[in-house]
């Protein structure tokens, strides 16, 4: 493929990514893989180059671009080598016309940049949300230790601030390694691991992971429980929750799963009301803290979806709290740095529920925000999270 043809291919990938973002369709990762799958003749070097070009444009454009070409022209504006490739050659992009639309550069759509600023995040820090992310592993304590795992991995891995975490360069194909098939590790960001540590679960406890999804945090909780006690993982999303059982089997973790009906969660959890020692509420959110991994996610958020998330967050926090026994605890987590999804939700809960108190959290990282802690790429080298641990009196 010529360099110009790669640019034209990236423009086509971007068109598909933009269309999917507009109709709340598949993620950019998925869209790009489908696009490439339909063109098997493209070699691996070209695939990587196309992907890098497309992701460079996604990271640069704050507002949803009008087209893939407009997005790529925004990159061309700051990259003369790329400008020269708009040469009208066969399979390459047409020459640039003066009046053509060029996508605007920024961290996020203007309204969302305002929300970030109101949440104490500067523009420079916001740009940090779009940097390339490393790949973190969590050594599975049910089968190994961090040191033993580090000694057998094919690459040198860095230790991060979470007790079981190892860090590798982003994109390392760890899921093809035999150590992964043996369940010796899971892929999990250090920040996510730290939010699990905050719940301080112990062997023998009764623990609920209310919004378990495919079990990223469930498996970390299971490892901390060392196979003793009862761990219940719930979600309203059947496809996601159904991915948990095979992962748990690989990890050697004992987990009961329960699919919930939206709006009827409390009925389905009647046997757990006021019984749990610890509850994890990893609430659905806009995901502003994970833009490093899916930068096009910021093109999907709307003021309406943010308001919808805030309602869901208050609701899952209420449901989770009803499961906690007197003297028990709950950790509320969002992978978002917007106050509306974190400190404000917890603050409103504490105001309405005088029998709950925010606890001091000691996880060796994070900056206080509201009644909880915030983890960020710039201060903690993690994805962005807000989490708060609450104790029921
Ligand atoms: C942030 S994701 C969970 C990610 C998961 N805990 C992990 O670490 O991989 C939030 C999850 O909450 C689920 N959810 C949304 N509303 C819910 C509800 N009312 N009850 C239980 N789960 C809910 C969503 O389906 C989604 O899987």
UniProtKB/TrEMBL annotation:
Active site located where?
A: 335 (nucleophile)
Per the record, the domain of life is: Bacteria
GO BP: any one term:
RNA methylation
Residues the record lists as binding S-adenosyl-L-methionine? 235, 282
Family matches, as InterPro entries: MeTrfase_RsmB-F_NOP2_cat (IPR049560), MeTrfase_RsmB-F_NOP2_dom (IPR001678), RCMT (IPR023267), SAM-dependent_MTases_sf (IPR029063)
Would I find DNA-binding among this entry's keywords? no
The entry's keywords: Methyltransferase, RNA-binding, S-adenosyl-L-methionine, Transferase
The answer to whether UniProt assigns keyword Cell inner membrane to this entry is no
Q: Which Pfam families match?
A: Methyltr_RsmB-F
Q: Which residues form the SAM-dependent MTase RsmB/NOP-type domain?
A: 102-393
Query: For this protein, what is any one GO molecular function term?
Result: RNA binding
What the entry lists under Gene3D superfamilies is as follows: Sun protein, domain 3 (3.30.70.1170), Vaccinia Virus protein VP39 (3.40.50.150)
PANTHER family per record: NOP2 YEAST -RELATED NOL1/NOP2/FMU SUN DOMAIN-CONTAINING, RIBOSOMAL RNA SMALL SUBUNIT METHYLTRANSFERASE B-RELATED
Q: Which family does it belong to?
A: Belongs to the class I-like SAM-binding methyltransferase superfamily. RsmB/NOP family.
The protein, known as: MFS transporter
Task: Write down the species.
Answer: Novosphingobium sediminis
């Amino acid at each position: 493929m010529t360099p110009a043809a790669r640019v034209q291919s990236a423009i086509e990938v971007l068109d598909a990514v933009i269309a999917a973002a507009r109709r709340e369709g598949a993620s950019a990762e998925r869209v790009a893989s489908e696009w490439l799958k339909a063109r098997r003749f493209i070699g691996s070097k070209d695939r990587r180059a196309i992907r890098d070009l497309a992701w460079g444009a996604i990271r640069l454009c704050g507002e949803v671009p009008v087209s893939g070409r407009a997005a790529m022209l925004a990159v061309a504006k700051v990259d003369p080598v790329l400008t020269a490739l708009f040469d009208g050659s066969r399979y390459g992009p047409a020459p640039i016309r003066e009046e053509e639309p060029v996508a605007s550069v920024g961290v996020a759509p203007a309204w969302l940049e305002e929300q970030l600023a109101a949440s104490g995040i500067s523009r420079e820090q916001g740009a940090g949300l779009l940097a390339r992310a490393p790949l973190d592993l969590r050594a599975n304590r049910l089968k190994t230790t961090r040191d033993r795992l580090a000694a057998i991995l094919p690459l040198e891995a860095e230790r991060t601030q979470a007790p079981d975490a190892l860090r590798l360069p982003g994109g390392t194909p760890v899921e093809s390694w035999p150590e992964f098939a043996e369940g010796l590790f899971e892929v999990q960001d250090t920040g996510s691991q730290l939010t699990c540590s905050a719940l301080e679960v112990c062997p023998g406890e009764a623990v609920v992971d209310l919004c378990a999804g495919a079990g990223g945090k469930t498996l970390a909780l299971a490892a901390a429980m060392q196979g003793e006690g009862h761990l219940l993982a719930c979600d309203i999303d059947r496809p996601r929750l159904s991915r948990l059982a095979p992962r748990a089997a690989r990890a050697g973790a004992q987990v009961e799963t329960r699919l919930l009906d939206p709006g009827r969660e409390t009925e389905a959890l009647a046997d757990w009301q006021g019984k749990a020692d610890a509850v994890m509420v990893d609430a659905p959110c806009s995901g502003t803290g994970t833009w490093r991994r899916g930068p096009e996610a910021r093109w999907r958020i709307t003021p309406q979806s943010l308001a919808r998330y805030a309602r869901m967050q208050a609701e899952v926090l209420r449901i989770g709290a009803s499961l906690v026994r007197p003297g028990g605890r709950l950790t509320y987590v969002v992978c978002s740095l917007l106050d509306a999804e974190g400190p404000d939700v917890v603050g409103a809960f504490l105001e309405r529920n005088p029998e709950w108190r925010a606890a001091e959290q000691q996880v060796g990282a994070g900056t206080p925000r509201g009644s909880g802690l915030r983890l960020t790429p710039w201060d903690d080298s993690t994805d962005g999270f807000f989490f708060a641990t609450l104790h029921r009196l």
